[in-house]
Amino acid sequence: MNKRKTILDIGMMKDKQDKITVLTAYDYPFAQLMDNAGIDMILVGDSVGSVFSGYDNTLPVTVEEMLYHTKAVVRGAKQALIVTDMPFMSYQVDIRDARLNAGRLIKEGGAHAVKLEGGEHVAATIRAIVDIDIPVVGHIGLTPQSIHRMGGFKVQGRQDAQARQIMADAKAVEEAGAFALVLEGIPKDLAKEVTASISIPTIGIGAGSDCDGQVLVIHDILGLCDKYSPKFVKRFADISTTISTGIDQYIKEVKGGDFPTTEHSFK
Ligand code: KIV
User: Fold this and answer.
1) pLDDT tens figures, 31-78
2) Which of 11, 120, 180, 234 has the largest count of CB atoms under 10 Å?
3) Quick one: 126 and 162 in the same domain?
């Protein structure tokens, strides 16, 4: 069995220019499949709210829900580093709350690190969590928990002032002690500049190919989500069709009396 990846391994991958692979998972079977495939990091994302629970956005997700999904993922993954998202309102109000909630995700959930959204304005919170020995991943650019401020899921950093803010955010997150930084929904050239100007690895989603790694939502890459699919998503497989075919066949066989046969029955 492969040794569990640590934040040190992830940091070294930037130096070696070895691209970091990250996918989201919310349950045991998917965690096991991607772990067996050799994924470097698994993100128990608050995207669980959209693609698993069917909410319109990530805002309703709770710490309890993140704990539930984290525990399932931890049981399935033996070699990947597991990072869990801190959901909306679990770190925004005060630092004590942020530390307690981060601590629960590690202690009760079994995650190895937490991720939280924001740049300069959450730097003190990141520092406070890192100071109690909990590794943190930052997340800047298009931050889904800020959907109402941004006026929707819009690419960030196209204007000069916004781009300068994103650079300042990246520096602030690095200085606060985060070990990696997610760059979401920003122009490719800006992501390249950020990646070159900080020492911690950048993990891109809709941020082009120059980031140190890439992350995508598992439901998006497998065609499991019928919702709007952003431009940056590539569908690597279509398991919806496979699942629907299986379900159709089940219904047909039960209705037609072809299932169960004696093979699936007890004497
Ligand atoms: O919640 C999530 O899945 C995320 C990634 C898409 C970066 O934050």
Assistant:
1) 999 999 999 999 999 999 999 999 999 999 999 999 999 999 999 999
2) 180
3) yes
Using alpha carbons only, what angle is made at residue 207 by residues 205 and 209, rounded to the nearest 5 degrees? 100
- Can you give the pTM of this predicted structure? 0.97
Task: State whether 206 and 255 are in the same domain.
Answer: no
State whether the beta carbon of 145 lies less than 6 angstroms from ligand 1: no
Is 141 in the same domain as 33? yes
Task: Respond yes or no on whether the N-terminal peptide bond of residue 260 is cis (omega within 30° of 0).
Answer: yes
**Distances, alpha carbon 84 to alpha carbons 25, 26, 74, 95, 197, in Å:** 10, 10, 10, 18, 26
Cα–ligand 1 centroid distance for 216 (angstroms): 7
Model pLDDT for residues 195-244, shown as the tens digit of each residue: 999 999 999 999 999 999 999 999 999 999 777 788 999 999 999 999 99
Let me know whether 155 and 247 are in one domain: no
